[in-house]
Amino acid sequence: MDAEIIAVGSEMLTPQRVDTNSLYLTGELNNLGVEVKTKCVIGDDLERLSDAVRRALSRSEIVILSGGLGPTEDDMTREAVALALDRKLVFQPAIAEALAQRFAQFKRAMAEINKRQAFVIEGAHVLPNDRGTAPGQWIEESGAVAMLLPGPPHELKAMFERQCLPRLARMVPKQIIRTLQLRVTGMGESDLDQLIAPVYKKYANPATTILAANGDLQIHLRARCATAGEAEVLLAEVGGPIELLLGDRIYSRNGDPLDVVVGEMLRKRHATVSVAESCTGGMLGERLTAAPGSSDYFLGGFITYSNAMKMELLGVAPETLDQFGAVSSETAEAMAAGARRRTNSTYALAITGVAGPDAGGEDGPVGTMFVAIADAAGTHVAHRQFLGDRTRVRTFTVQMALDLLRRRLWR
Amino acid sequence: MDAEIIAVGSEMLTPQRVDTNSLYLTGELNNLGVEVKTKCVIGDDLERLSDAVRRALSRSEIVILSGGLGPTEDDMTREAVALALDRKLVFQPAIAEALAQRFAQFKRAMAEINKRQAFVIEGAHVLPNDRGTAPGQWIEESGAVAMLLPGPPHELKAMFERQCLPRLARMVPKQIIRTLQLRVTGMGESDLDQLIAPVYKKYANPATTILAANGDLQIHLRARCATAGEAEVLLAEVGGPIELLLGDRIYSRNGDPLDVVVGEMLRKRHATVSVAESCTGGMLGERLTAAPGSSDYFLGGFITYSNAMKMELLGVAPETLDQFGAVSSETAEAMAAGARRRTNSTYALAITGVAGPDAGGEDGPVGTMFVAIADAAGTHVAHRQFLGDRTRVRTFTVQMALDLLRRRLWR
Questions:
Q1: Contact A319/A281 with Cβ under 8 angstroms?
Q2: Residue A71: which pLDDT band, with cuts at 50, 70 and 90?
Q3: d(CA A323, CA A301)
Q4: Which residues face A394 on adjacent strands?
Q5: d(C-alpha B43, C-alpha A103), whole Å
């Protein structure tokens, strides 16, 4: 079965707005085994909209409209769909009454204009909206179905989940869907793809998607089968070789981000961590404390931007800074050791480098990064040269630091 | 003049992908005074695509397609547009030759399949692609124009800017566009809208847009007029009263974010700042160091998650923590004073609070936040109760801390 999604509203056609409802709806439809073939954003234009609805219903079994159900003149989804189906709009006093009560509940008088929301397309099922004023509608016609859903995402999601999904599940032939999600770090997207494409390209089912953001890669495998057993077998057949190829670059198999994985490992070992950051300015601490409950393992940290602060707060020796410079393996080591000494943490991570965009001069080119990890056994430093702007360099460095800690914890 | 945008490719119809090309194109078209009336994403389906192109060209003067120009079977934008216009595809040996040279330059042999990219729709102008292999095409037909652009954003942008914009500028009636951008913090989006809507609602020109993210609000006014003078007058007529209503809640008139504004103020005064963070874990330091050159004014900071760290690193007195608790006005003050003392900075900001999601117990409910600022004159504490999840609470608190410093610097 095929689906089309139409978002309605001129405000959705600005350079800033993105139609996120369609992403949610696509995910839910895919889970049912339904593919989205087209999606559109159409402004407040009765003729364009009714034309689009007519054509969508002529070639797809499922057409979902979002938005344009409000009380104002601009809101013309009801009229457009009625026009496309050549059906009448019928005033339903019960809906108007419910609306009036809702307003009364919030101690407000209902403006006359709100009564427009009580018009329903002939033959449609009304979908009550418990999170807003605009009711939705479900209309079947010659084997196809059109859904009119409100635009605000929390209203749309609640209505779709509770009222449309059960109805759709009865319409759509049953399929079992199983997914495998691997998260990987420490390599680029194209390197990853080159490595695993020979495995997954042979299969249309499971479908493979690779997502990349901020030095973090996600591999999604989705298998659709008649039984759960078949789906599991397919996932193992494709996922197994991929896992083998990637080895310990895979840090998560359940969707958890790297900071959560590292946090769980620390918690399990009753270990703690502290940080010392130069050019990342607190970003590593922020990542390590993003997860709730991080106080179980995160003790604290030092943001030491200047040389004076590195000496003062972390006890980095002036000779180290003089001889090797602030951006050096030696300074990174001294920072990590200093943070660990001052906080008594099991592990300490330290970052020093040139985030740019101004060239680092004697500190080396932009993107030069030293990340150190200290524990009872001593210190270890990793060196990388990142490309890109300041934000990219800082984000990739923080990811690298978290991965360094993960690898240390795995041993 | 009206425009439609069509993004091509089944990979754009997944739950993860968003068509960002259309946002860029909409912005550029709006700048020319052209409105986007419809935008669509269509999968790799020749019939659907050619039908969409035919209908778009029948009602809009400008139709822009992105993607589907690659060398594989899936790439069918050329065929679909040729079909829609009932024109032939013509093989251009010169393009094939240029492609082969490009491959040779990267020391790779060109696969036979790449020759598909050398087919051009009869009567089209070829748009060379200096950032990729797929050339674009510009086709005029009965007063309308269709553009075929490559999908990768950096290829599309370069081609559109250099080759399409100048051609479009000759087609579109001249308009002058002037914008006013105000950035505001310290109030909610609906409060802001309620305050200024009575002013801007009276005007369709300038068009007003309000964007909200992470406690930060942006107001964009866009005036379109025949002359720059008229546009400036219109902006003053609407922008003036808005600025008056918002007063010192406006922190920027040139688009600079709050951390940059604060950084500039510190730099001008030759002042420095340090931070002491509890529940934000480094996020304030990260914001203050996001701008290049922040080492001019940012000295360093302390991430003190535990009570022990607050005492150890910042010298917060045990009695203060015992008597008032870690989440208190008194502890925030002591943290700020401690950070300032230890770094010798002109200003110090400190944050302590309950970011959640677990209830704070004796520390008060989730979202309780104390932000302190210390300088030579003493310390000052602000208290707020934020709603939302951990990320939202932390982000809003950091924004509040930056605003506290801005207000102190303005006095």
A1: no
A2: confident
A3: 25
A4: none
A5: 43
**Cβ atoms of residues A299 and A289 within 8 Å:** no
At A19, is the secondary structure helix, strand, or coil? coil
Question: A residues 58-117 near B, CB within 8 Å?
Answer: 59
- Report the pLDDT value the prediction gives residue A155, as an integer from 0 to 100: 92
Can you give the pTM of this predicted structure? 0.79
Closest Cβ–Cβ partner in A36, A40, A298 for B38: A40
Spatial separation of the C-alpha atoms in residues B107 and B117, rounded to whole Å = 19
**Which residue has tokens 């101004």?**
A358
SS3 for B108-161 is: CCCCHHHHHHHEEECCCEEECCCCCCCCEEEEEECCEEEEEECCCHHHHHHHHH
Which domains does chain B possess?
2-171 (3.40.980.10), 176-252 (3.30.70.2860), 258-410 (3.90.950.20)
Identify which of B289, B343, B356 has the shortest CB distance to residue A281: B289
Tokens coding A333: 């080591």
Q: How high is the ipTM of this complex? A: 0.77
- Cβ of A292 under 8 Å from any chain B Cβ? yes
For residue range A382-405, list pLDDT tens digits in order: 999 998 889 999 999 999 999 999
Paired tokens of B103: 């491959």
| B67 pLDDT more than 90 | yes
Asked if A37 and A119 touch (Cβ cutoff 8 Å), the reply is: no
A388: left (phi over 0), alpha (psi -120 to 50) or beta: left
One-letter amino acid of B44: D
B207-213, strands of its sheet edge to edge: B207-213, B216-225, B176-185, B250-252
Across the interface, of A294, A313, A356, the residue whose CB is closest to B292 is: A356
Q: Which of B37, B19, B75, B5 is nearest to A26 (CA)?
A: B19
Other beta carbons within 10 angstroms of residue A125's beta carbon come to: 14
Q: Cβ of B218 under 8 Å from any chain A Cβ?
A: no
End-to-end CA distance of chain B: 49
User: Model confidence over B117-128: pLDDT tens digits?
Assistant: 999 999 999 999
Residue A190 in contact with partner chain B when CB distance is under 8 A: no
Among B335, B269, B314, which residue's Cα sits nearest to residue B296?
Answer: B269
